Amino acid sequence: MIDQLARVEKAFCYQFSQRALLESALTHRSVGKDNNERMEFLGDGVLNFIIAHYLFERFPAASEGELSRLRAYLVRGVTLAALARQHQLGQYLRLGPGELKSGGFRRESILAGAVEAVIGAVYLDGGFDAARDMVLALYHDVLADLSLDQGLKDPKTRLQEYLQSRGWPLPEYRVLSAEGDAHAQVFKLACIISEPALTTEGEGNSRRKAEQAAAGAALVLLTEK
Description:
Blueprint: H1 2-11, H2 19-25, H3 37-58, H4 64-75, H5 77-86, H6 97-101, H7 108-126, H8 128-138, H9 140-144, H10 155-165, E1 172-179, E2 186-193, E3 198-204, H11 207-224
């Protein structure tokens, strides 16, 4: 376990003086009462403040709404889970037998929660400045490409970019049904992905909205795997 903790410290660019905090941050609730839920709660608050302050300074002309949208984009589960995967955090988590068997180390919610818990642990161990430095280092690549337009992309665009970034074929959208009067039709469409094999459905009062709903459902499934 000590070697694993050292690897996590290296990945997150922070060396703990109280390694028990890091061990707790990596322990999922499926293990028992001594888990990372409280630390996750703390880390969530610390992360939100750090990102809010960073955005406030970086975009002095941005409105409150623009800053809120950017913060939500940066602290959402999908982003946190992607950072966890980038640093292979899943392999260092302590999970109960059920979560191990079901592949919990790949699940978005568990990975995102673990990142927040590690942030909380750094805050407890080294204070706010240490937590801020670690978060900004962790987000370095994401923040480098950040713009006010970030987070505005619709689900179809984000799904296309997700698949393209992995060299996978683009999805196919197929109308399953169109019911109701012409002025109040409800469309049901399927989003069909060949690699990895996945089909999701979406509904909307237009074909475009149904496609967006199906693409959004596919993104949720893909990023939770």
